[in-house]
Amino acid sequence: MIGVSPQLAIRLTLLGVVAVILQVSAVTQIQIVGVNADIVPLTVASVGLLCGSLNGAALGFFAGLFVDMALFQTLGVNSLLLLTVGYLAGRLREMRDPQGAAIPMAVGGAATAIGVGGYALLQFLLGVDAPVSFLLLGQVLLTVVVNVIVAVPVHAFVRRWLLPALPDDPRRRRRRAYTTGGLSPLSRA
């Protein structure tokens, strides 16, 4: 990870490993509306939103490589897609610095669409024998909907996990209300 403290690098590494292991071992066993949630692109997108494009892309690459190795898939497909997800989420943070409450859901939906839809497209382009029909499109759309719902708790967990190691960003500071109970210094007589 580029230009990060050792504490943040360790936290990002542990987060990526735990997300992939949790996805492969537990989340794939739980079906909601006939599809499985996919927490790896949500985790990568959250890291991109919190840490920037380079850290999001680095985590995306290594998490994707770990997913490909864990599932014995074509190496590099998930790496490419999750690298893209992390980079784009990080660029959104760097260019716009979104602060809305719905941002994790919107970015999570886009990350899932890139991850799941891109995976299906790349497998088709690589010549893997898989049925391509409207059923696949329905599965992708249902996965996006499920991940939009799951995006808020995943983002909250990632933020809570990384918050002690994140550098202080002056753009992220918000004005705080006076908590002393007294009047504002601007309202002196």
UniProtKB/TrEMBL annotation:
InterPro entries: Cell_shape_determining_MreD. It is found in: Cell membrane. The chain crosses the membrane at residues 12-33, 39-63, 70-89, 101-122, 134-158. It holds the Pfam family MreD. Signal peptide: none annotated. It is a multi-pass membrane protein. Keywords: Cell membrane, Cell shape, Membrane, Transmembrane, Transmembrane helix. GO terms for cellular component: plasma membrane. One of its GO terms (biological process) is regulation of cell shape. The keyword Cell division does not apply. Belongs to the MreD family. NCBIfam families: shape_MreD. This is Rod shape-determining protein MreD. The lineage of its organism: Bacteria, Bacillati, Actinomycetota, Thermoleophilia, Solirubrobacterales. The gene is mreD.
